């Protein structure tokens, strides 16, 4: 059994009697130098975290796992902490976790914010652009930053994203004697913070900023594109049919501007996607769109399917937006899906439509045809402009198919 004790900036004084007993009775104490200094001397051997930590963890567990190991972690070990990694490596049944309030709980306590109404974004080891997905008018964000430049970088992103009016609270060194709380607007924020800060943001859009909700079907001009874009009405239907679930992986084959993969990922922070695009210029554009719309973790493969699909991790759903007529493409996508996996393919040309009709005949599912007309000015009047109809084949793989 491995014990994980959360310890706050108030150190030993803040620990429960149960946590103190676990530390006192430990055979080995593992933690950062700062955390190890917070607990009194005992018979325990004190071992400092090596750097880098992650690759060393399995070895440390093998060496000390049966020696009365007690791991010291900051705040709540299960909140963006070492506890989650240990649960994955050693199994939750082999862990006894004793949490302290997390920096997030302390921040909400200081601000009077209900924790459950906040959105948490960690920028530790993640690109700043990930914040954009969460920036919505009226939302309250709690941003974990990696260093003293964090608050100024968050403010810079908010200004650039059209949210300079947002109020920022930078709460530093929570729970310690040096605790501080600075408030200001993102528009005027320039100060550096402490290395240990939580940035709380009351998001407010500037005049003229169009909010980008998370429901699929963003306006077409939310994406940089060269015309190869699944238009918003068809895109909303296509993503709904792909039916994203938390943690699932999408292949967006023939990704164009990347809009399907991007909207898939925006539905949930744990949704993942791989965009496969044969045109290098478009592939570069997909990267820019993913960053601008807050999903910089989108993986982009520049290459021609089906060859480019080889070796990719198995998807939960596949969208085919281009290349359906290429020999072996649909076969490769279908084969890669697990039972319950969804395949959605769109066709505009008669050639690709006939491929989808054949697949519909052999694999079932459903075939729909969407014809969208948008009203626009004609002279001094308004008239319908009908876009090319799109045929959408959707199928769910049964086991053994
Ligand atoms: C209609 S666009 C897709 C639009 C995309 N769903 C979007 O909303 O941005 C089709 C794309 O498929 C790409 N494509 C066509 N055949 C391909 C293949 N075999 N492998 C990879 N990409 C392909 C084309 O370069 C083009 O960018």
TrEMBL record:
Ranges of residues in domain Tetrapyrrole methylase: 1-187
Pathway: Cofactor biosynthesis; adenosylcobalamin biosynthesis
CDD domains: AdoMet_MTases, Precorrin-6Y-MT
Source organism superkingdom: Bacteria
InterPro entries: 4pyrrol_Mease, 4pyrrol_Methylase_sf, 4pyrrole_Mease_sub1, CbiE, Cbl_synth_CobL, Cbl_synth_MTase_CbiT, Cobalamin_biosynth_MTase, SAM-dependent_MTases_sf
Keywords on record: Cobalamin biosynthesis, Methyltransferase, S-adenosyl-L-methionine, Transferase
Annotated NCBIfam families: CbiE, CbiT
Record's protein name: Precorrin-6y C5,15-methyltransferase (Decarboxylating) subunit CbiE
Organism of origin: Nonomuraea mangrovi
Organism lineage: Bacteria, Bacillati, Actinomycetota, Actinomycetes, Streptosporangiales
Gene: cbiE
